[in-house]
Amino acid sequence: MKDCSLPTRLVVWVQGGGDLGTGVAHRLHRAGLAVVVTETSPPLVIRRAVAFANAVFEGRWEVEGVTAVLVTTAAEARRALANGDVPVLVDPAGETALALAPRAVVDARMLKTSAGPGWRGQMIAIGLGPGFAAGVDVDAVVETQRGHYLGRVILSGSAAPNSGVPGAVGGVGQERVLRSPADGRLCCSVQIGDRVEAGQVLATVSGQPVTAAISGVVRGLLHDGQETTRGSKIGDIDPRGVRDYCFTISDKARAIGGGVLEALMLLSRSAGDVAPQASSLGE
Q: Between 2.40.50.100, 3.40.50.1110, 3.40.50.300, 2.60.120.10, what CATH number should domain 174-239 receive?
């Protein structure tokens, strides 16, 4: 029987298992850290194919060779870590995650507004994107806006403010985003990875159609049957038309993951923690 005690690795708590949080968790896991992800139920995740949050729906979910497993207790999370998996907890307040004694927390919820009092002072705290001030409510902020500074570690001050405009993918911005036409339940007629044409009806919400503004592949889509509100984002289309991009971590998420790893190693040294060693993997 496997030893279910925590591995001798620095434990990192990632709040939010969407595509960006998964990019972070995946990179930290590959670097030898013990990562636990917390989510809400149901998670409002668009790019489900590359999101550990999808384990909430499926029980377990694999992204690029790393498996996330839905767990309900700290003991189950310890077993998942010992097996080399990433435990996912429906634990918005982090009560169970805290039982694993994390040395660092990464807020990847992408709320884009102040999340209130953080965990700074109790553990290393890193925030993604706008809504955080390094040196005030977190120890470091990682830039999430596409462009020259994407993935940059900020140790004083904030990331670029939320522009409210979706970043361009393949030269297309707002038109690639699918939004709910009404309050109600989402009923999907396509799946992530499907090729679609401009003008095609992809889903309905309360009987009202969700129509593609551009041609491409469906890169992200809320889980079928989820409740949504008028104007909220429910999916996106990739105009580049490369299906493989729907099922692999994006360049943006990888850059942000690299920034978090850099910040974590820097802050860990400052705090006197020992950086993870390759020999500790799987212990």
A: 2.40.50.100
